[in-house]
DNA sequence: CATGAATGAGACTTCATTCAT
DNA sequence: TATGAATGAAGTCTCATTCAT
């Protein structure tokens, strides 16, 4: 187990995450031949994501990852020097992209902050919470102690921006007179943590989760959550 | 700390009631060897809890568990046939006791349901959320797919009773006229999931979590959360 | 594995084989109390015989032997310092006794040598070949290389006397004019080896051996064998 | 020596026909790595035969087998999933080839059945009885109870065909008027078992067997045995 | 004497990693 | 670049043996 971070803290695999955004917006100059070559590391990372999410770092099997990616075991080590490097690449590649997608929604929003929150949460669920990328959160929750560098990375790249975003939204609600004055940090976490929990829970339990009778419907879960957070459980007189 | 010996510590531990006959005859010199025989499984389970929470199932090392427990490698296998059995014992032993402790609070409560919720959550945090037993949740989140039997056990022994308890509390609030009518299941999850998330988060990140500046203060987190959930973020006129 | 014979070539267990003959012919002076005590090692040896024959030396399990003998594992080591010592005791105890029983038959026999051979073989089958003691032969066949000392012991105590006995019988037949002159050593082995083979074969295959249709009937096997060996397969004119 | 590569070397060896495509294109430089890949299983099986015959299944050590084969411990498990699989491969590989070699002799034999028997036995001794393949018989005698599947396999592939062959020979002798009428099954066993016993005995005792003075000479043993079995020990008048 | 808890060397097996091709 | 045969460290588990009771 990696108790101390190895000296080479970044994977030396050639260009395996810089073009993540490129593939999102396909550049025009990419020749077909090299696109296939450049795709290899991504296919491996995608395969590794699934395996790591299923089995955890220690439980994941490089051979199984290779098979999922349709390559031989040796090929994995052509692109990633060690299993740890591959793991880091998996986390890094799957953290940046979805978050960027999500954040754009909250900018330049017209309408009530309540609607912004509802829309933002549904958007997050669609883009992240319901996708395999959500497994990254589950993964880091388990491996944070063994990969403090990744935990920090997660804090910097996911938590901090996410919290910042939440603060902006709440501040907007206060400024517009919709919300009362609150502690933005704490409230941001209160507001968002149920979604994170639900995402991790569904990653863990799959769709066959008989928690309180049937499986949890995310849409209903979010709507109810927002309703509670904004209006409260207690009776309130009509304004 | 799970040092309070749970009644049923494991399904695989062999006959450890051999010296009940010895304790029947009131010898004053307590035999050290057989005293240990009773204490050993608990010590091992306690050590294993820490190791499993830190490293996950696959990453945990039986030798390391033995060392933490102050016994030799072989001794672990005297009490638990396989690593999996030990893992199951860890989950089972650390689920029943804390849960029972917590549940007693909600019975026969006198006072407002709001106070009951606040008190109940602080109690849970004290009894479970802030203890290593919370690591069990983090653990199961990762290993549920590999231990479906344990996942089911967790559902039956933790999730279902917990949800039932939440429903009772909410129903009480409705019956007493404090709360408006809500979907009990969904609302129960909305209400409780932030605490679960916080507990798992702190298990993962330890005390060095610079999430939104300083570490999260659980007391503040809970109080703010309850305030939001009951009264909402939005401005409300005085009743 | 014991590649070289340990320095203490004889088990140091107290009197575990000297009284083998004593138990065969009960001495009058044995007090009841100590008989029970003296019986322990024999019970262990008997249990060990079964286990060793079933599993071989390396495959045998001391705990299983103890259970078969109805004692605890530690007790085995009270009487036999090591597993090797126990093995040696098993071989020694089960070689001497049956052989002595058998040999007495051939002395002072009145009648034709043909009848002596037939009777002697049936006797051997009853006393040895069909009993668990026959497993010793199978055992030594496997472990001879690892226990050269025992192999030599077997040669000295079993093979040599047995061959000597066969020679005497054959010589008697020649002297009485029944048999033609033959090489006594080779013929002795030719004559006896089928019985040894059958005994080992049945030890190995149990009763469920579908060799040539039904199981081999030892009585028929012996009678046919003697008939062939004495009269031959070829047609012969009546004398 | 079982260095002649048997056609089917193992059921568990993985795809070793991968380089059939390479051999299709006639490269002059034979690739050393993949050459080994074809040779390895046979080398390992040959090494395992020796180890298993010496030590038995439980006593055999995979590391020692690897060393005998000149490979590392892990390589053994590249070709054979478990020690049991390796054992099965050893038995299977060393049964088919020698038996086929032997059986061909008895077909289309011209001459007396007596000569056929003598020649057949000497042939068997040369092809099987005096080779390490004979150790398989000794091995199965010990391990039959633990590997019932292999015992059955041995019955089907060795015992039954061998017995069938013996029956054919005896029937031929009867048909040609050489032999009297006998029970073919029992007589077949009587006729052949001394050779089996001698083979196993020499496997067990090696060359240092001081049975009846010097080591047993197999040729003399067989000739004497056939002489006895055909003509009998008793005096017989000239025909 | 008898027990059985405890030990630790050693067994089989896995798997990340290397490297010749 | 891609492969997969080969490696050996490390892991789980077994079991002969010890020893306090």
Overview of this protein structure:
Four copies of one chain form a homotetramer. Chain A has two domains: 34-81, Arc Repressor Mutant, subunit A; 82-231, Tetracycline Repressor, domain 2, CATH 1.10.357. With 239 residues, chain A is mostly helical. Chain A has ten helices and no strands. Chain A is elongated, with a radius of gyration of 20 Å. In chain A, helix 2 (32-59) crosses helix 5 (83-106), helix 5 packs antiparallel against helix 6 (113-129) and helix 9 (184-205) runs antiparallel to helix 10 (218-231). Chains in contact: A-B, C-D. At the A-B interface, helix 2, helix 7, helix 8, helix 9 and helix 10 of A face helix 2, helix 7, helix 8, helix 9 and helix 10 of B. Chain B binds a DNA duplex (21 and 21 nucleotides) through residues 18, 31-34, 36-37, 40, 61-63, 71-75, 77-78, 81-83.
């Amino acid at each position: 187990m990696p108790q101390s971070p190895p000296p080479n803290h970044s994977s030396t695999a050639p260009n395996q995450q810089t073009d993540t955004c490129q593939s999102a917006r396909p550049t025009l100059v990419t020749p077909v031949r090299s696109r296939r070559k450049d795709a290899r590391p991504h296919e491996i990372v995608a395969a590794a994501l699934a395996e790591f999410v299923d089995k955890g770092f220690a439980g994941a099997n490089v051979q199984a990852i290779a098979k999922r990616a349709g390559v031989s075991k040796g090929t994995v080590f052509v692109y990633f020097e060690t299993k740890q490097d591959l793991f880091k690449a998996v986390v890094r590649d799957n953290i940046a992209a979805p978050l960027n997608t999500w954040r754009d929604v909250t900018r330049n929003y017209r309408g009530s902050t309540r609607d912004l929150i509802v829309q933002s949460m549904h958007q997050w669920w669609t883009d992240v919470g319901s996708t395999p990328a959500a497994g990254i959160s589950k993964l880091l929750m388990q491996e944070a102690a063994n990969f403090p560098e990744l935990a920090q990375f997660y804090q910097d790249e996911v938590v901090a921006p996410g919290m910042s975003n939440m603060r902006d939204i709440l501040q907007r609600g206060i400024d517009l007179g919709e919300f009362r004055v609150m502690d933005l940090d704490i409230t941001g976490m209160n507001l968002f943590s149920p979604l994170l929990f639900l995402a991790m829970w569904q990653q863990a339990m799959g769709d066959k989760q008989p928690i309180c009778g049937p499986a949890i419907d995310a849409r209903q879960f979010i709507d109810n959550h927002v309703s509670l957070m904004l209006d409260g459980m207690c009776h309130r007189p009509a304004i």
